[in-house]
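Working notes for the structural subgroup meeting. M.R. asked for a predicted model of this chain before we commit to crystallization trials. I am recording the input and output together here so anyone reviewing the notebook later can reproduce the run.

Input as submitted:
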Amino acid sequence: MTGQQDDATLQSQPQDGGGKSIVITKQSDGTVQRIELSNGGEVLTSNIEGGPATAVASVPPPAPRQKALPDGLLEMMVIIMGAATLISLGTPLVKAWTRRFEKHHDLRQQAQIEQRLTAIEQAIETVAVEVERISEGQRFTTKLLAERAPEELGRPR
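Returned structure, recorded in token form:
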């Protein structure tokens, strides 16, 4: 800034309509500048005394920069999160279901095995009774042969 602005006088006049304010500056060289400001502090018009008023275009502040996501990224993230949720919740459920199925299958299989063992036990008991009968018959036959043997030895043939 120049030394001329050090000597400037500043006068502010608020306006009732629209919330505008007017700032008048007087330089030491005698020039007067009239500046019209909006509520936000933007310069609306500016003129130097004796010259034409110039409208100053207000430049809007730059829009905040937004980082754009690549196409399809949001859908991909939803799919991945859904799959992760499904896996984390589904795995224990599937394991519990298979254990339940295997348990029922094991119970049925165990019942079948018990029936088979019962049938085998009965068959073994029946075979034992038959073997006992055969051995009794063998003893009886042996006893009869033993009683006849001395008689036959004494008889000529």
